[in-house]
Amino acid sequence: MLDSTLRRRSLFAVGGALAGSVALAPAARASHPGGTPLEQLLAGNRRFVTGHGRHPHQSPARIHDIAAGQHPFAVILGCADSRVAPEILFDQGVGDLFDNRVAGNIVDDLLLGSIEYAVEEFAPPLIVVLGHERCGAVSATLDAIRTGGEAPGHIGAIVDALRPVVEPYVNDPDGVEKAVRANIRAQVSALVTRSEIVAHSGARVVGARYDLDTGTVTVL
After folding, report:
1. What is the pTM of this model?
2. Contact residues for 119 (Cβ-Cβ < 8 A; gap 6+)
3. Of 112, 168, 184, 192, which has the fewest Cβ atoms less than 10 A away?
């Protein structure tokens, strides 16, 4: 296992320039004061909710400083919903978060490969699966199950991926909310059970829910 890990890291080191992770600039290597990575994200969310956002790391100087290399302190697997942009709702900036976004925040092979790459390349201490209130992908899947209908085009792939997770809540009056939470937990589990790279990385993997009405992120 150790030898294979070293071989993987050597491979990524050779191709590191592609991701801009070689020769990290001083600003990119700087620590992020103010608590653990999760505490920093939640503090940023509180600033966002209260209208006191600092909009850090968004200056021309920051862009220049990290052009030679990135070192994000957290990986986010979030929904593609336009209202749930991680840098905005966590009040972070350029180079802080490694975002992966897809409808329903689903861990498929492509997303898992992207996250594994980030884990191998940047060794982030935190991975967050971020679902949200009234998720359209979850709602569409529940509707498809109830009606027996089929989603058009490739949307069916999303429904198929979510079906096993959300089906137990199809007749529940609060089914969408319960299914959203179940899906967040299921994708957290998928990250650590399907990926040896994630499981052995030492990164903390947590699930969280974004409230569309209040802007608040809650850790599940």
Report:
1. 0.86
2. 75, 127, 197, 198, 201, 203
3. 168
